[in-house]
Amino acid sequence: MTETTSTRIAADLRARIAAGEFGPGDRVPSTRELTRQWGVAMATATRALSLLQDEGVLRSVRGIGTVVAARPGSARPARRRAASSPARDDVVRAAITIADAEGLATLSMRRVAAELAIPTMSLYQHVSGKDDLVTLMIDRAFGEEPLPAHAPSDWRAALEIAARLEWTVFRRHPWLAPAMSLTRPQLVPSALRYTEWVLAALDGRGLDTAAAFDVHIMLFSYVRGMAVNLESEAQAEAESGLTAEEWMDAHADALTSLTAGGTFPHFQRIPELDFDLDLDALFELGLRCLLDGLRGVLP
C-alpha cells in the first residue's frame, strides 16, 4: 500500500512538472507538505521524492531543498567568462560562491579555476594554495559586516553588537565556522577588528589584558560553536531532502518508543510540546545567559 501511494504521489508531481507548474530549479512540495496534502506518513512522502530523484527528475540543493532538475537539453547557466588576468578579489569571490552553495569540502583550486574558466595554475599568481585562499575568504566574509564607527559606552551593549554581527556573518556563510580554528587562528584584519572592539569595550573595567582577552575568546567561541551546526545541517538537508523539522517528524515514532516506559519522564514531555529547534532563538538565549554571567566580574 505504501509503495503504491508513493508511486501515485510521484506520478502526480511528475505530471505537474510536465505541465509546467514547476520549472527547472523550482522547489517542489516538501515531505511535510506532501504528508498534509495526501494524508500519508512521512516515510511515504519521502519515498515519493526519492523515486523522482532516482529518475533524475528532482535533485537536492544545499540550503534550498528538493528542486526540479534541468531537463535534458535545457539551457544551463552560462559559465563566467574567462578573464585574461583575474584579480585576486575575483578568485576569492568565486571561492566564496562555491563554498556558500556547495560547502567547503567541495572547494579546490581546480574547482575555482573552472568557475572562472581559467587554467588552474593561473590561480597561483594570487594565492599559494587552498589554505591561503580560505584565509582570504575568512577575511572577506568578516569584512562584509563592519563594526560601527563608534562603540557604545556600555560594555554589554558593545559585546552584544560584536556577537550579533559575528552570528550574522556565520549565518550568511555556513562554511565559515568550521573553517576557523580557535587554537591556531587565522590572523585576518577584518576578524581582528572584532577582537580589538571587545578589548576596547572591556578596557578600564577591572580586568587585565589577559583576562579581557579570555572574555573575547569565550564570547567568540560561543558564537562560533553555535554556528558550527549550520553547515552540517545544510549538508544533511541537501543529502536527505528533509529539513531538520521534517527529519524530526520522520523519527517521531522512534523517539516516542525510546521514551516510553517512564525511564526519561522529563524528556518525554519534549515530543508532546511539538518542540522546534530554533538556532537563532538558542543563540539569543545563550548570549543573554553568557552576558548576564559576566556581570559578576564586570561593573
From TrEMBL:
Residues within the DNA-binding region(s): 108-127
A Pfam cross-reference name: GntR
SMART domains in alphabetical order: HTH_GNTR
Domain HTH tetR-type, first and last residues per copy: 85-145
Keywords per UniProt: DNA-binding, Transcription, Transcription regulation
Residue ranges annotated for the HTH gntR-type domain, each copy included: 3-71
Protein name as annotated: TetR/AcrR family transcriptional regulator C-terminal domain-containing protein
